[in-house]
Task: structure prediction
Amino acid sequence: MKKIIVVLALLGSMLGLASCEEQLFQSPITSKELSNFLRNEIEVEEYVNAVYANLQTNGLYGRDLPAFVEIPSDNTYSEVPANDGGNYGQLDLFTTIPANTLTTDAWQQSYRTIQRANVVLNRIDKITYAVAATKQARIGEMKFIRALLYFNLVRLYGDVPLVVEETVDPNDYFGKGRTPSAQVYTQIVKDLTEAITALPETSTQAGRVVKTAAQTLLAKVLLTQKNYAEARTLLLAVVASGRHTLLPDPATVFSITNENNREIIFAVQFASGVNGNTEGSTMFQQFAPSGTVSGAKGHNLPTKSLYALYATTDKRRGTYLTATASGIPWGRKLTQPTVITDGGSDVVILRYADVVLMLAEVENELGNATAAATNLNLIRTRAALANTTATTQTTLRAAIDLERRLELVNEGHRWFDLLRTGTAIQVMNDWFKANNILVTITAKDLLMPIPQSQIDTDPAIKQNPGY
Result:
């Protein structure tokens, strides 16, 4: 799904849909009435590709979402909080307001993408495909993407409107308010369980969702729900598939010349210098220290305290992140283009290192300390570190937590990890105190505000407490 060149301009909110060069070589379709669209396999394929394309928007994985779910943590910060209207700085200092554009864009783009996935799922059953397995794969892909976005939404905002049918008349959904998070989680598990059955083991096209992606995401959902036994079963299935592995050298995992390698399970695809520089991402500018590249904004920079946790012998130091001459750490998982203004690095959502660390965590929670340490040491060995000295459940928890920080920095996991483990308030208050920052958070800070524009549109959707 690398070079997106076809743009569909549909009526209403169905704007800006795209397709892929490897998949379709068609002239742009400038005007299509949605009610007269998706009548055959070709049109469904265009629309499916458009769902993938929407993951590239700035409100999702094109720029903001990885920062949105890491800046509130002790992993990263905003170097110049006032940049970009203070939107990133609000996340950093827990002063986020309902009008914050990051919270608004994440909400809006998530629901736009969910609507597009719902359109496909509502109509694809009536469409004849030349290859039945391809049709089933597309159903699985749409259910995976819908589940991914709802999983993000429910962790960010708590109770959220749950819509799993194509919205023909938006008025049908006014006045219904927010769906309890437990019900949203039930739908997420259902979608991913069905996706696992429908998805193929492999795909000839990079960027397509495959079975191991659904297994990994469902394992993460179950881990969040503390269903350790079922999460373990899914993670072991990913391991047993043989489709993925830890690459021997951390330096090759995020190399732009080695994208979609065997460690990557699912990534949103980007390409630099394609279609008028519209298929890349500006995230490399957002996450670069001020003055290091043109347009650098200094958002989502690793904290100095995190950088200090890397041993000098750790292969990830200098590879996953480094520091400027003045000592400001910055992430290197995104390649900075030298001439073209849009970056071509894919944004990794799921990779095998996360699987190994989740497996270490579930084994530890199930009382299997030896298995937990074995998995943890797979990550440490690759980083050229000695085996862990942790042996008890408590010390292993801390060791696994630390390794997740060091391994997954800048990939958008840390805040969700703190929420999942119930440690966010204590960890963040300790961090603020240690760094002489006059911020104290409480339970109300664990959820983002519902966008004010959404509440203004539908007063039945109530704001989270404290906002």
Q: What stands out?
A: The domain at 4-250+259-307+316-329+338-448 is CATH 1.25.40.390 (Serine Threonine Protein Phosphatase 5, Tetratricopeptide repeat). The chain is about 40% helix and 5% strand.
